[in-house]
Amino acid sequence: MRLVRFIERHILATLVSLSVLLRFPFFFRDYIDKDESTFILMGQAWVDGFLPYTLLWDLKPPLVFLYFAKIIYLFGKSLLAIRFFGAVIVGFNGYILYRIARNHTSSLYALTLGVFTIYFQSLFGSVQGVMSEHLGLFPVLLGSYLLVEKHSYFWGSLLFSFGLYFKLNIAYGMLLAYPFLFAQRRAELKQMISGCFLGGTIATLITGIWFINNTSLFIESVFYAPLAYTKATISQQLKTFLSILPAFILLTWLFKKYPKHRFYSLFTVGVLFSLIRLGKVNGHYLLQVYPFMILLVGILIYELKRKVSPKMVLILLMVIPIESYKETWGLLKYHDNTGYWYNGEGHEIARFLKAHNLDKNTAYYTDYHIGYWLTNNRPLTKVVTHPSNIERPELFPFMRVNDSMPIAVLEELLTNQKPEIIITKSRKNFKDAVLESKLTSTLKQNYQQIKSVGSALIYKRK
What we know:
The chain is mostly helical.
C-alpha cells in the first residue's frame, strides 16, 4: 500500500511538473486571451471589496473570479502566481484523467493519456493562460471519477455542480449524461437522486451565499445573461455544426461501441451541442471536449491491441510542444534585448505610463486591458470590463446600465467621463463602423498620440 501511494504521488508530481514546464514560458506574457485579463480585473475588484457584477461585469459564473481573487489576495499582483497555480490545476486535470483511464487500460497507457490531456490543455490555440475551462474541468473530471467510477453520487454531483459555476454550458452535458446514468443504474436510483439533489443544492448555496443581499443580480448575471448571449443565427449555428461534425460522427460510433462509457460520450456531445447553440468555436471552448475525447479514443486504440512504438510516442511528445520552444526562444531574446522578462504590449504600456507619471490618470483601453491592473487602475464603466462587451447590447440589461445602445455608452465614456489616457489598437478597434467613427473623431479632436508600442497606440487628452 505504501509503495502504491509512493508511486501515485510521484505520478501526480510528474504530471504537475510537466504542466508547469510546458506553460512556464507563457507566464511572462501580458495576455494570451482577453478573457484571462478580464478575470483578473474581476478578481481584483472582489479583493477590493466589490462583489462580481456590481462594480465590474463579465459573462462568467462567480467561481471563476473567486480563483483569481484568492490568488491575488494571497500573493498580490502576480501574473506568475496566477499562471503557476493554473498550471498546477492543469496537471491535476491530467492526473484525474489518468486515474479514470487506469480503470479501463494499463497504468502506463493511462499515464500516456494523462500526458496528452495536459498537452491538449496547454499547446493548441490561446490556452496557455488560465481560462474558465481549465478551472471548470477540475471539478468536472474529479466529479466524473467519483460519480461514474466510484459510485459516489453525493460528492460527484457536488463537484459537477461546482463545475457548473465555473462554466455554465456543462449543463448541456449533464442533461444528456445524467439521465443515462440513472437508467443504467436503476438499482441505485434512490442514492443517485438524493445525492444529486443534495450535492446540487449545497453547491448552489455555497456559491450564492455571497449574493444573499442581491439574489436578483446573481440570477440575472449567472443564468439569464448567458441565454441572451447565445442567440446565434441559424447560419452561424449551421457553420459551427459542420465544423464539429466529424467529432459528432466519432462520438456516435463510440457511443454504440462502448455502452459502459456512454456517460463520457453523452457528456461530450452535450458540450458540443452548447457550442452549436452559441454559434462559434473558439480554441479554448474545446478544452472541455479534449479530455473525454482523449479517454474514449485512447480506450479504442488500447482495445484494438494496436502496438504503439514507445520510441514513436516519446518522439511525438518531444515534438508536439513546439509552441513552448518558440515562446522560450522569444522570451530569452526579449530579455536579452530589453532586460525585462515580462513582455507584450500590456507590460510595455504599463512601464511607459509609470515612467512618465501617467499611470494614475483615468484610462480607457480598447485592447491590452491587462494594463488597467498593471497600473493599479480599473475600467471606467462595467460595460468595458471586457473590451468587446460594448458591442454586445443584448447584455446591457444584465449590467444594469442606463443606455441601451453601444454608441450611447461610448459617447458617455468619451464625452462625459473624458479619460485622460486612451489606449487603442493600431488597426480597427470595433466591428461596428459607427463606434469606430466616433472613437476616431474623438481622438483627432481631443487627444494627441504620445507613443506607439507594438500594435498599440497611446493617446493623451489635450
